[in-house]
């Protein structure tokens, strides 16, 4: 009889105000052969969800120390240049506190695939402007302009170690595949509605297409593709990544008149050209970026004012593009999650006094990473629930609380609907914007166990200390079994 165990280690890196999640998933298939002798195959996947912080040094040090630790024999697969391999990286959106470590990550690791939210360069500019304040001034404006307007060109440039202008020159024979994830209008394929089709292949199964010309930046790059809307990516037939982009992003980020869009597009093109000119000073480029920011906000505001709404650009307009990621087993098998509760009390928000030391165990093996997405009101939440389906929602035991625990993005409705026993807030409470919000931390105090009623949920603040959670699936799932670190 075929048997499967899946073991996922989710490591939240302490990078202060930011998000850097490093995951490893071991899929072990046990197949009965004709001679009734079992055959084993093991697939070990390494992945990352977001890699940024408002503290540049913190995230870069963390990337380099992890890459050093990953030079282990367990990494059976190495790039020709000996770098460890990441099977996939998900970038939720392009704010500094989510991508600042990306260039270090791409240098330290060979990355097979990167998933990005599908975007209009202007929409992304609107969104990233939220992080564009004085604190971003130590970042090279040329890097920012390229990362935001054409992330593929930016990624290629980092990988080639080249300077601006040679971004399409390939030094790598096997370039990173970049996959844009479109807006999720329809529900994802239902989870576990058929017998799992076990597969030994370490390559994921997914439906992608080539972009049409000009559909996305760098659409001419042979390794850029677009995922079929509302689809999932499946490894070995048993473990899935289900990306979600709120379809509202479309309206929220491009809510200005076509004529204004043309004007802004032209202004953006001009900035791009200027950033390729080595004679342009950083200061002048900053000025140009800030002016575009102003014009963009004015254009968004004009439309809103016409509709009788507030003139201010809302947090939603800045962050709604966030690419969320559900990860979990496809078949519904016995499963559990273990979290080592940190001994250090400073690992908890001040409101939390955990009363269960040691390991905690709950049923389920799904994790939901939300970036800075919106799951505050019932409308946002029901869209996500409809998209993922009840089975995945019930299977979700680990939540990265949206937007570092901001009161704009999460609420008691979020926890009522998702009902997650383990909730992680990644933030530095002593620094602006002072996440997490007390009301949100309180909202995640309990979860409802079907058999025993309300129980205390685990809430962990990941500031400087790391925090690890282990999700285990399979008939013989218990802590320590098939574990490799
Ligand atoms: Zn953020």
UniProtKB/TrEMBL annotation:
UniProt source species: Dyella nitratireducens
Protein name from the UniProt record: Metallo-beta-lactamase domain-containing protein
Superkingdom of source: Bacteria
InterPro entries: Competence_DNA_uptake, RibonucZ/Hydroxyglut_hydro
Signal peptide annotation: none
Ranges for region Disordered: 182-204
């Amino acid at each position: 009889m075929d048997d499967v165990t899946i073991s996922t280690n989710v490591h939240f890196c302490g990078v202060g105000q930011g998000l850097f999640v490093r995951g490893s998933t071991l899929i072990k298939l046990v197949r009965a052969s004709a001679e009734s002798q079992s055959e084993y195959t093991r697939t070990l996947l390494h992945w990352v969800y977001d890699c940024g912080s408002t503290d540049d040094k913190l995230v870069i040090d963390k990337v380099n120390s992890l890459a050093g630790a990953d030079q282990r024999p367990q990494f059976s697969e190495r790039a020709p240049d000996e770098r460890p391999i990441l099977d996939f990286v998900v970038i939720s959106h392009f704010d500094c506190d989510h991508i600042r470590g990306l260039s270090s990550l791409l240098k330290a690791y060979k990355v097979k695939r990167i998933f990005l939210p599908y975007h209009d360069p202007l929409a992304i500019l609107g969104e990233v402007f939220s992080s564009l304040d004085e604190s971003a001034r130590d970042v090279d404006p040329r890097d920012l302009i390229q990362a935001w307007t054409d992330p593929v060109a930016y990624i290629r440039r980092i990988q080639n170690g080249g300077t601006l202008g040679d971004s399409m020159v390939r030094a790598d024979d096997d370039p990173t595949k970049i996959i844009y994830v479109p807006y999720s209008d329809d529900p994802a394929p239902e989870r576990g509605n058929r017998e799992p089709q076990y597969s030994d292949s370490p390559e994921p199964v997914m439906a992608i297409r080539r972009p049409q010309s000009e559909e996305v930046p760098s659409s001419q790059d042979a390794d850029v593709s677009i995922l079929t809307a509302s689809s999932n990516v499946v490894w070995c037939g048993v473990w899935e990544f289900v990306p979600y982009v709120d379809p509202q992003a479309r309206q929220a980020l491009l809510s200005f008149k076509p004529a204004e869009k043309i004007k802004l597009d032209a202004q953006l093109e001009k900035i791009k050209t200027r950033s390729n000119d080595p004679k342009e000073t950083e200061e002048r480029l900053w000025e140009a970026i800030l002016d575009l920011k102003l014009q963009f906000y004015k254009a968004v505001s004009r439309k809103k004012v016409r509709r009788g709404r507030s003139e201010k650009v809302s947090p939603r307009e800045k962050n709604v593009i966030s690419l969320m990621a559900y990860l979990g087993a496809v078949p519904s098998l016995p499963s559990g999650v273990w979290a080592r509760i940190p001994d250090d009390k400073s690992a908890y928000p001040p409101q939390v006094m955990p009363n269960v030391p040691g390991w905690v165990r709950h049923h389920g093996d799904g994790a939901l990473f939300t970036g800075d997405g919106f799951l505050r009101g019932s409308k946002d939440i029901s869209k996500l629930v409809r998209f993922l389906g009840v089975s995945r929602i019930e299977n979700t035991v680990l939540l990265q609380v949206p937007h570092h625990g901001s009161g704009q993005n999460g609420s008691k409705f979020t926890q009522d609907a998702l009902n997650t026993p383990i909730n992680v807030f990644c933030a530095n409470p002593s620094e602006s914007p002072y996440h997490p919000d007390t009301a949100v931390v309180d909202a995640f105090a309990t979860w409802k166990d079907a058999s025993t009623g309300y129980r205390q949920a685990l809430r962990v603040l990941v500031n400087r200390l790391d925090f690890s959670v282990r999700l285990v699936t399979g008939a013989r799932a218990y802590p320590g079994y098939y574990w490799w670190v």
